[in-house]
Design brief:
About 25% of the residues lie in helices and about 40% in strands. By secondary structure, the chain is of the alpha+beta class. The chain has one domain: Trna Endonuclease, Chain: A, domain 1. Strand 1 and strand 2 form a beta hairpin.
Length: about 120
């Protein structure tokens, strides 16, 4: 379900003016980013949360402080690896919620700048 949700999220971002640069970035010593994207002049580190219902709350609610630290660690490693290419580039942390209800098209919400490092 997670991989499918990430594909749906990537297509949604691209259809809404963004560009997916990398999928599934994993940093050594921990740290992860589902999607690294560009939206206008902003570099976006995106966490994708896919759910079948809202019974346990909105998907974004699962992006707790511990998960945020993993995403930030992954983002910092991505920026370090890109070196001078990212100097002066603004970046943000986004969450894309994907709700998969049987018999319905995916319901996608792109929440921008959800947390800070």
């Amino acid at each position: 379900m997670g991989v499918f949700g990430e594909k749906v999220a990537g297509l949604y971002i691209e259809r809404n003016g963004g560009e997916v640069l990398f999928r599934g970035f994993r940093a050594p010593h921990g740290g992860e980013v589902d999607l690294v994207c560009r939206s206008k002049e902003m570099l976006c580190f995106v966490e994708v949360k896919t759910r079948r219902s809202l019974a346990y709350g909105r998907p974004v609610e699962a992006v707790n402080a511990a998960k945020q630290r993993l995403i930030i660690r992954g983002a910092m490693e991505w920026l370090r690896r890109m070196g001078d290419k990212t100097k002066g580039v603004s970046y943000c942390y986004d969450v894309v919620e994907v709700l998969l209800t049987e018999g319905e098209p995916p319901d996608v919400t792109w929440l921008k700048n959800v947390f800070n490092d």
